Amino acid sequence: MDDQGTRGDEPGAKQRRGVLKGLNSIVNGIAEIRNEGFGVGHGVYGRPELDIATARLMVTAVSAAATFYIEAHAVTKDSSN
Predict the structure, then answer these.
(1) CA–CA gap between residue 69 and residue 81 (Å, rounded)
(2) Which of 32, 34, 70, 71 has the most neighbouring CB atoms within 10 Å?
(3) Nearest-angstrom CA–CA distance, 2 and 55
């Protein structure tokens, strides 16, 4: 999967690029929220808490993004053999 056009001539390539750009925005947004002190990494205590709906959105979004990247990498790796 390449949002820079490696598969840019395929049907849906333009839309795929748009989705990947949106995914990039989601990943960046989650990182920014974590950097604001909402994450529990590195032994942070006394942090602010997200509301349950936002916390679930973050978990669901990052799980979907990670699954996508793992599967896309596997397809790329398989096609390079």
Answers:
(1) 19
(2) 34
(3) 29
